[in-house]
């Protein structure tokens, strides 16, 4: 039996993007199209499992894309690793609705912690990276703020995971074969 290949999905908060939370902005639409292309490319290259920490923005968008693709692909799986059970408590109602719909459709769901902790988001990222063979991230190394996404990319590089980076402003795609 062939080994199943898994991809971790993560990215900056929408507040980092030029379009912010405006999903109708042409920049957001372009970013989602690039994410769709990258997910389809990964699938063509044998990736059957995708893992996300279910954060608003990139995590949610990728999960929605994968759940749509799963309609025609029985092998495709989505694993949702929540930082903590109440992650969406303070989200806007429209995001919470999409979040719970995503969780209903996913293949498997787990939570790192029962309650919020200072390291919950990073620990969720670490978990999905550790269990993945490749990382797909919407990330700009030049905007390093020392946040959880920056720490997660550093962790993925230290683990020598291949990292596919989609730049959040230019939408260019770069691939690091060794994670460094």
Give the SSE map:
Elements: E1 5-11, H1 26-44, E2 47-52, H2 58-70, E3 77-84, H3 93-105, E4 108-113, H4 120-130, E5 134-138, H5 148-158, E6 163-166, E7 173-176
Helix pairs in contact: 1-2, 2-3, 4-5
Summarize the structure.
The protein has helices at 26-44, 58-70, 93-105, 120-130, 148-158; strands at 5-11, 47-52, 77-84, 108-113, 134-138, 163-166, 173-176. It is an alpha/beta fold. The protein has one domain (5-176): Rossmann fold (3-Layer(aba) Sandwich).
Written overview of the protein:
- The chain is α/β, with parallel strands linked by helices and 180 residues long.
- It has one domain (5-176): Rossmann fold.
- It is 37% helix and 22% strand.
- A hairpin with a 6-residue loop joins strand 6 (163-166) and strand 7.
- The mean pLDDT is 93.
- The percent range for strand residues is 15-25%
Summed over residues and divided by their number, the pLDDT gives a mean of: 93
Looking at the overall shape, the CATH architecture is 3-Layer(aba) Sandwich
- SSE sequence, one letter per element: EHEHEHEHEHEE
